[in-house]
Amino acid sequence: MRQAGRFLPEYRKIRSRHDLLEICKDPELCAEVSTQPVEILDVDAAILFADIMLPLEGMGVKFKIKEGVGPIIKSPIENFQNANSLTTLDPSSDVSYVLDAILTTKKRLDSRAPLIGFCGAPFTLATYLIEGHATREFTKTKRMMYTDSKTWHFLMEKLSTSMTSYLRAQIKAGVDAVQIFDSWVGCLSPQDYHRYVLQYSQSIFDQLRETNIPCIHFGTGSANLLDEMKSAGGNVIGVDWRIAIDVAWSKLGFDVAIQGNLDPAVLLADTRLIKAHAADILKRIDGRPGHIFNLGHGLLPNTPRENVTELVKFVHEYTKENS
Fold first, then answer.
1. CATH no. for residue 104?
2. Structural domain includes residue 305
3. Considering 130, 131, 134, 283, which has the largest number of Cβ atoms within 10 A of its Cβ?
4. What secondary structure letter does DSSP report for 298?
5. What total number of domains does the chain contain?
6. Angle (CA) 112 115 120, round 5°
7. Would residue 278 count as lying in a domain?
8. Using CA atoms, how far apart are residues 267 and 299, in angstroms rounded to an integer?
9. Active site residues
10. Would 293 be classed as within a structural domain?
11. Which region, left, alpha or beta, applies to residue 286 given φ > 0 means left and ψ of -120 to 50 means alpha?
């Protein structure tokens, strides 16, 4: 889940010499970092080392990524004119380094594990573009939603079109699955999601259906939006730790797979507690096909390496013994 290797000493050694964007734009470095979790932790899949902001740069957005803060947008979108100034992404020229990184990473993996590509969902990207940085209130975003529907829908349409072409390019380059991260969608009510967001995420999933590539739909704080997220699409729905995974799956229906839902903070505890939490999730799943054991969000940077190793080992052993 989201650059699982970022807590690893091997990754930190690379980061001591290169910033995040330098790694993302260097296919060899990107491949090395992307495969570290598979090589070191024995996880079952690799996720491409990238950032959801990368395609926005190709659309004309100037930003920097500040350590401990996240993306900072130089000129946030305030009106239709700002939104109209964004160009539509051309992946082959605007993010060619991402596509090269996929080819390099696939070669390095050598069929040992599948590679997951990803993008930010239109809503989450829109929040950064409008707010200018990460926020907890989303006041500027909601103000535009409620008071300037022309600009809102224009921006969301442009983002959904660009993210569709971005994921198509990743699929063509060789990723085995894609994940759409809607990290901030939990700030919305079901009614607002349905009115202002659903159609744009749905458009991406609908247009990717013909590729026959598994698509993961991920959100946090979104237990109240499971029905809406399923309607938007995805073969797999990600859930965080704020809802029991069996309850979430019953609510979603068993015609979709499910991913999650261990709290990343549990990995800061001792291994006894970690195994107890993992066992609880696995018992709730009870061997049903279509479950991807995962965290509910990204690994915390100060997570002890041995705790992650023990978790992976425990899940592998548990599922083997109970299959």
1. 3.20.20.210
2. no
3. 130
4. P
5. 1
6. 165
7. no
8. 8
9. 2, 6, 15, 51, 128
10. no
11. left
Amino acid at 99: L
Residue numbers of the domain that contains 137: 4-238
Per DSSP, the residues of 12-35 read HHHHTTS-HHHHHT-HHHHHHHHH
- Contact (CB, 8 A) for 7 and 274: no
Q: At residue 196, what is the residue type?
A: Y
Task: Measure Cα distances from 136 to 111, 140, 141, 145 in Å.
Answer: 40, 11, 11, 16
CA dihedral (72, 76, 77, 81) in degrees, to 10, reads: -130
Tell me the CA end-to-end span of the chain in Å, nearest whole number: 24
Q: How far is CA 158 from CA 53, 145, 151, 204, in A?
A: 15, 15, 11, 12
pLDDT in tens, 274-309: 999 999 999 999 999 999 999 999 888 889 999 999
pLDDT at 220: 93
Q: Specify whether the CB–CB gap between 237 and 275 falls below 8 A.
A: no
Residue 316 lies in a domain: no
Amino acid sitting at position 233 = G
Dihedral over alpha carbons 38, 308, 47, 265 (to 10 degrees): 180
**3-state DSSP assignment of residue 231:** helix
Q: Rounded to whole angstroms, how far apart are CA atoms 274 and 293? A: 13
Q: What six digits make up the tokens of 79?
A: 């009106």
pLDDT tens digits, one per residue of 28-52:
999 999 999 999 999 999 999 999 9
